[in-house]
Amino acid sequence: MRPVSTSTTGRPVQTGRRRLAVVLTVVAVLVQLVVLYDPSPAGGGDIPFADKVVHALVFGVPVALAGWARLRWVWVAVLMAVHAPVSEIVQGLALPTRSGDPFDVAADLIGVVLGALVARRLSGVSGAPPSRW
Fold first, then answer.
1. What is the pTM of this model?
2. How many Å is the maximal CA-CA distance in the chain?
3. Which of 23, 53, 103, 128 has the fewest CB neighbours in a 10 Å radius?
4. 101 in helix, strand or coil?
5. What is the pLDDT of residues 7-63, one digit of tens each?
6. How many CA atoms, within 13 angstroms, populate the side-chain half-sphere of residue 35?
């Protein structure tokens, strides 16, 4: 186990890797907001269920990255789970070129669960040290 350096306040100093993980978490959330609220999204394409995969990714990746960043990923997962139905309601009511889809909410929640599983593994919540993926 590596020693953790601390500042004069006794708090751990952020390492470069953690800062990167925090920045990537913020970027992932911003990408999610663009994907969900862009009034003229890209077409569905010819790949079946591609839209559902995108939904799972834009909800799961921020949760997983929050775990890697050692943020309170459980709270991020809860916020994402609440945001899933809210985003579809907003799309259905406020964006004329978009529609709310309950299957998108299901894909979002699957993404949150998968992201939480990865976050748990990366953050070492189980008591074991995180693996080096």
1. 0.80
2. 57
3. 128
4. coil
5. 555 556 567 888 999 999 999 999 999 999 988 766 666 788 888 999 999 999 999
6. 19
